[in-house]
Amino acid sequence: MGNISRRSFVGSVAAAGGACLLPQAMAFAPAGKWWRSATAYQVYPASFCDSNGDGVGDIPGIISKLGYLQDLGIGFIWLSPVYASPMVDNGYDISDYQDINPLFGTLADMDRLVAEAKSRGIGIVMDLVVNHTSDEHRWFKAARQSRDSEFRDYYIWRDPKPDGSPPNGLQSAFGGSAWTLDEHTGQFYLHLFASAQPDLNWSNPALRQAVYRMMGWWLDRGVAGFRMDVINLVGKDIDREVTADGPMLHPYLREMHEATLKGRDCVTVGEAWGATPRDAIQYSAEESHELSMIFQFEHVQKFWDEKFGKWQPKPIDLVALKAIFNKWQVALADSGWNSLFWGNHDLPRAVSRYGDDGEHRVGSARMLATVLHLMKGTPYVYQGEEIGMTNAGFRHIEQYRDVETLNFHKLQRAAGRSEEEFLAGARANSRDNARTPMQWNARPGAGFTTGKPWLGINGNFTKVNAEGDRADPDGVFRRYQQLIRLRRESALVREGSFKLLYPDHPELFAYQRELAGAKLTVLANFTVRPTRLGVASAGMVESISGRDVFSGKHHVVTAESTFHPYQVLALLEP
Ligand code: TEU
Predict the structure, then answer these.
(1) Ligand 1: which of 87, 93, 230, 301 to mutate, judged by most atoms within 8 Å of the beta carbon?
(2) How many CB atoms lie within 10 A of CB 156?
(3) Is the CB of 244 under 6 A from ligand 1?
C-alpha cells in the first residue's frame, strides 16, 4: 500500500461512498429514533463563548455559534447545567431547576436558544442533575430548618453514631466522608459529592413527583431531552451502603418514563459509571421503557491506577481498550443502544489521552474520530474535540479551579504524596483539562472572551483554534464533518454489524461493519510508530480491499502493508 494522501474530497463523502451507502439510507427512518442517526455535541457553557466580556461563557454566546455547530452537522447539543447555582461544582449544584444562572443569561435567552437551535435542526438536551441539589436550593434550606419541615424527607438524614461520628463509612466522590453534620438539627445529611451537594431522597414519592413535574416543564418549553447526571445513584439503599445500581433504580426510571417521557419524541442518556452491558440493555432496550442509552466508562476506568485512581497517569493498553469496545458493540448489537465517546467535561482531552498532542496532533485526532464514529451507537463530541484541543498543561495547583482536583490535592498531600506527583496526575486527568476555554481564533482571549477568562486559556491557542483548523481541508473539523454526515447518510454506519479484527494486534485498531452485503473495514494505527498487519495477524483473510470513504482511493491491504503513525483507512466494498 502506498503513501496515503490525506487530502479528502471536500464535503463529498457521499461522492466517495455514496453509490453503496445512499440506497440503504432511504430505508431507514423509524419514527422517534432520530438520535440513532444524529451526532451529539456537548457544550460546557462556562467555557464555550462569552458574549459580554465577564470571562464566563453564556447562552447568547452559544446562540452566536449555532451556525458553526450546524456546519459541523450535529443533531443535538448536550448542554451542561445552566440553571441557577452557586457554582461550587460549576452548575452541577443546582439551587433552582426552573431558572437560569445570571452568569449564563435569562430564561428568555434559554427559550431563544431552544428556538434558534430548532430552526437549524438542532435539539437542546438539558443536563438533569437530580441525584442532589445545591445546599442553597429552597428545598434544602427548608429541610434543615427543623426535623419537622415538610421538605425534611426530600433529603437523606441519619443520626450520628453514639460517639458522634458519621452514621456509616460512605465516602464522597470528591474525597472524605459522604456525611456532614447539620449542627442546627443534630443529624448528618448525605452527599455523595461535595458537602454543598446534598443527596435527594428518591424513596420519597413527593420528591419524585416534583422532579417529574420539573422535567415536564422543560419538555413543554421545547427541549429535546435530558442527559441524566449520575442517574445510577438514585435507587440507592443507604443503610446497606449500596449507592450505585440500587434495588429501586430501574423501577424509578420506568416510573419517570411513564410520568414524563412517554409519547414524547425525545432522547435520554443516563450517566452510569460502572454499568455492565447487561445493565445497559436493561436501561436502553426498547421494551424496558427507561432511557435511550447510557454513558458507560469501562474504557476510561480500565486505565486508572489501583491505588491513586485517576491521579496517577497510566498508559493505555490497546489490546485491552479494543476488547472493551468489542464487548460493548457485540453485547448491544440486537438490543439496547450504545453511546460513543472519548471525552467529556470530566475527562482529559481525547487527543492527549488516546492520541498524540504533539507532532501528530491533527493526524491522531482524525484517527480517533474515525475509529469512534464508525462504530455503532450515538457519538458525542465534546467541545473543542472537533478542532483537536489538548490538555491544559497547568504547572501549578493555583491554576486549577475544579473542586474535585482541589479536594484531592489537599487529601493526597496530607497523606504524604509529593506536590510533583500529584501535579503529574492532575496534568493527565484533572477535569480542568477539558474545561479550558474554547479556542476560536488566534487573537487575545482566543475569541472566547474580551475579558479575563474564569479558567486559563491553553497556551497553544495561537496554533490550535477553530479558525485555523477549519481553513485546513485536512484539518480535524473537516473529518468530524465527514463522519457526522456519513452517519446520517449511511445505514451501514448506523445499523451494520460489528466485528473486531486482529484483537491481539498491539498497534492496530481494526474492525469491520457489514450490512446487506456491503462491508466497511476500518484500520487504524493507534501509535506513533509505523506498523504492519504482519503475519501474526491470525485469521487474516488474504487481503482487504476497498475504496476509502474519505479519499475515494482504492486500496489493497495485505499483511505487508505499512501504516504510518496514526494513519487510518475506512474501506468500503463493494
Ligand atoms: O459526574 C459523576 C462522577 O462520578 C464524577 O465525579 C466522576 O467520577 C469524576 O468527575 C471523574 O473524574 C457527574 C458530572 O459529570 C460531574 O461534572 C459532576 O461533578 C458530578 O456528576 C456531580 O454532579
Answers:
(1) 230
(2) 24
(3) no
DSSP-based three-state secondary structure for 143: helix
Say what the pLDDT of residue 313 is.
Answer: 84
Instruction: Give one DSSP letter per residue of 311-359, joined into a string.
Output: TS-----HHHHHHHHHHHHHHTSSSS-BEE-S--TTS--HHHHHS-SST
The pLDDT value given to residue 28: 39
Atom of ligand 1 nearest to the CA of 273: 4
Centre of ligand 1 to C-alpha 346, Å, is 6
Q: Are strands 179-182 and 157-158 parallel, antiparallel or unpaired?
A: unpaired
Is there a cis peptide before residue 160, judged by omega within 30 degrees of 0?
Answer: no
In percent, how much of the chain has pLDDT > 90?
A: 91
Nearest C-alpha neighbor of 568 from the set 535, 560, 559, 555: 555
Q: What are the cell numbers at 449? A: 472572551
Cα(first)–Cα(last) distance of the chain, in Å?
19
- Give 4 Cα–ligand 1 centroid separation in angstroms: 41
The pLDDT of residue 276 is 98
Kindly report which listed range (175-184, 285-294, 503-512, 540-549) carries the lowest average pLDDT score: 540-549
Share of residues in the chain with pLDDT > 70 (%): 93
Does the CB atom of residue 435 touch ligand 1 within 6 A?
Answer: no
- Checking if the pLDDT of 539 tops 70, the result is no
Q: Whose CA is nearest to atom 7 of ligand 1?
A: 346
| 90 Cα: distance to centroid of ligand 1 (angstroms) | 11
Determine the Cα–Cα distance for residues 104 and 107; give it in Å rounded to an integer: 10
CB of 432 sitting under 6 A from ligand 1: no
Q: Are 225 and 76 in contact (CB under 8 A)?
A: yes
User: Cell numbers of 208, please?
Assistant: 419524585
Exposed, middle or buried: residue 393 (CB in 10 Å: 0-12, 13-18, 19+)? middle
Q: How far apart are CA 498 and CA 519, in angstroms?
A: 10
Ligand 1 atom nearest residue 344's Cα: 15
Q: What are phi and psi of 305, to 5 degrees?
A: -75, 145
User: Closest Cα partner for 44 from 99, 89, 10, 3?
Assistant: 89
Which positions are annotated as active-site residues? 229, 271
Of 340, 352, 219, 228, nearest to 283 (Cα)? 228
pLDDT in tens, 136-159: 999 999 999 999 999 999 999 999
**Cβ pair 303, 316 in contact under 8 A:** yes
C-alpha distance from residue 230 to each of 127, 274, 408, 513 (Å): 11, 11, 20, 32
Closest CA to ligand 1's atom 23: 92
35 C-beta closer than 6 A to ligand 1: no
Contact by Cβ (8 Å): 399, 364? no
Atom of ligand 1 nearest to the CA of 347: 12
- Give yes or no for residue 450 having a pLDDT over 60: yes
Question: Ligand 1 in contact with 199 (CB < 6 A)?
Answer: no
Q: Please state the atom number of ligand 1 nearest to the C-alpha of residue 346.
A: 10
Rounded mean pLDDT, 187-194 = 98
| For ligand 1, mutation pick of 82, 129, 200, 229 (most atoms within 8 Å of CB) | 229
With a 6 A CB cut-off, is 311 part of the ligand 1 pocket?
no
